[in-house]
Amino acid sequence: MDAVVIGAGHNGLIAAIRLAEAGLSVAVFDKVLWPGGMAGYHALGGAEVGVGAYAVGVMPREVLTRIGLDVEVEVPDPIAVYELDGQYVKWWRDPAKRVEEFKEWGLGDEIAAFWDKLISLNKAARRYFFGEPPTEEKLADDPEARELFGRTARDLMSQYLPREFWPMFLYEHLWDEPAYVLAYFNPPEGWGRPVWRGERGIQALAKALYWRALSLGVDVKLGVSVKRIVAERGVVKGVELDSGKIVEAKIVVSTASPVHTLLDLVEGVDDEVRRRLEGIPTAGPYRLNLVLTEPVKLRAGLAPYKDSIFQLPFGEMVIEGNVVSAVGDLDLHLLETYVENVGKARAFEVWTPADYQRVFNARGAYVNHLPLTREFLLCRPVCGWGHRTPIKGLYLGGAGTWPGGQINGAPGLNAAELALRDL
Ligand SMILES: Cc1cc2nc3c(=O)[nH]c(=O)nc-3n(C[C@H](O)[C@H](O)[C@H](O)COP(=O)(O)OP(=O)(O)OC[C@H]3O[C@@H](n4cnc5c(N)ncnc54)[C@H](O)[C@@H]3O)c2cc1C
User: Fold this and answer.
1) What is the CATH number assigned to the segment(s) 3-74+192-281+367-422?
2) How far apart are CA 260 and CA 228, in angstroms?
3) Does 225 sit in the ligand 1 pocket, CB within 6 Å?
4) Which residue intervals of the chain bear CATH 3.50.50.60?
5) For residue 29, which atom of ligand 1 is closest to its CA?
6) Is the CB of 326 under 6 A from ligand 1?
7) Which of 186, 110, 111, 103 is nearest to 148 (CA)?
8) How many Cβ atoms are within 10 Å of 173's Cβ, its own excluded?
């Protein structure tokens, strides 16, 4: 093989597609049985349900066009419905309508100004998505980018918004992080479900990427774990699978968590790097998938907005036909406040942080492989590395690399582009 990619999550498949498009022979290994990794899906009670992600937002649309995929993102209207004091604030697709809605909640012109600010900061952030993380010097020459890393999200939000609206824009644990994170999570296009060949839902993206990789001749092996990355005298030689088989390759791109990659799969990692990665605390979500025997019946005034993302006091909830998926502090009684027919369950499953850690080798159960904190943004995973590692031929391209986590795709693309440039 010319290249081995560890992980068939969206970043791994994107990296593999880019390398195969350049004419390289590529194999992908993933320990789980589905494509898409944390943005993948499996069967439950006769339905296909997502195992992690449920909406696409932070991925620049050009990632997909660059790898020749015609996946659309269907953005619902309203995009999200946020419960505030027992009532619903609607996040309409049309920015003017959205501003009007917010004004009904007592916000004045500052909400329009805030929205303009977010759009300009998001554009500024995206200027740096493709390629290696920007250096401090580069940022210093760009006033908007300086603001992204020089201010906190809290500081920015407090300039425009009363506190009770902040959770609508950013998870609370990120409020003291750089404004970059706020801009990252608030793309002007909004959030929606991928649609591919008539299928709508998170599985559509995973299937499209899998299909594209296979059609380019990529050898995707699911249910196959990589035990070790083989390197000799600082140069990558390939990988060893759990079976003991060695697959030789001159390029290895790992899109598994950098913590797992650097602490478990390679030898000789510098002590300082080891300490940095060992030090990340445990975080991670709970996700409930509930498959009903009939279409989901929403109550409490939510029925007209069934396609939207619901931001509720316990967390987030999305509905897809007969399936309810909820992420957060889960409680079935609480869910019954919103879903009338919870009792009509055919099947259910709960994913815990320990499951995410074990199933995906995601140390600390990070859904983005590493925290999205100041310490791990420009230095993601290690200062000065970008997508390279000190081992020649070994690249990192998952959510724990620049420009950040979630379904973004730029990490995988960046790692593949760099590997091709280094050839
Ligand atoms: C509950 C939940 C909800 C989320 N909601 C959203 C959302 O709505 N929108 C959004 O954008 N993001 C969301 N996310 C985050 C998003 O799913 C992830 O950040 C993203 O999918 C990471 O993609 P990736 O390709 O970088 O890594 P992964 O998807 O983690 O892929 C890496 C793959 O490597 C494999 N692997 C690891 N070690 C090995 C090994 N040794 N050998 C072989 N294979 C290995 C893993 O099995 C995994 O499949 C959510 C995540 C969770 C858990």
Assistant:
1) 3.50.50.60
2) 11
3) yes
4) 3-74+192-281+367-422
5) 43
6) no
7) 186
8) 11
Where would I find the beta strands (DSSP E) of 367-415? 394-396
Q: Give the distance from CA 361 to its chain's centroid.
A: 16
**Which residue's CA is minimally distant from atom 31 of ligand 1?**
9
For ligand 1, atom 22, name the residue with the nearest CA: 399
DSSP string, 176-204: TSBHHHHHHH--TT--BEEEETTEESHHH
The CA distance from 273 to 53, in Å, is: 29
Confidence of residue 144 (pLDDT cuts 50, 70, 90): confident
Compute the distance from residue 241 Cα to the ligand 1 centre, in Å: 20
By 3-state DSSP, what share of the chain in percent is helix, strand and coil, each rounded to 5? 35, 25, 40
Band (pLDDT 50/70/90 cuts) for residue 140 is confident
The pLDDT, as a whole number, for residue 331 is 76
Contact assessment for residue 267 and residue 240, using Cβ atoms and an 8 Å cutoff: no
Query: Which among 367, 387, 408 is the best mutation to test ligand 1's pocket, defined by most ligand atoms within 8 Å of the CB?
Result: 367
327 in ligand 1 pocket by Cβ < 6 Å? yes
If you compute the radius of gyration of the chain from its CA atoms, what whole number of angstroms results? 21
The pair of structure tokens assigned to 46 is 């006769």
Q: For residue 376, give the DSSP letter.
A: G
The DSSP code for 330 is -
Residue 283: the pLDDT is 86
pTM of the model: 0.98
Give the pLDDT band (50/70/90) at residue 177: very high
CB within 8 A of 386, min separation 6: which ones?
Answer: 132, 133, 401, 402, 414, 418
Residue closest by Cα to atom 47 of ligand 1: 360
How far does the centroid of ligand 1 lie from the alpha carbon of residue 38, in Å?
A: 3
Pairing of strands 47-50, 41-44: antiparallel
The residue type found at 316 is E
- Cβ 39 under 6 angstroms from ligand 1: yes
pLDDT of residue 268 exceeding 90, the answer is: no
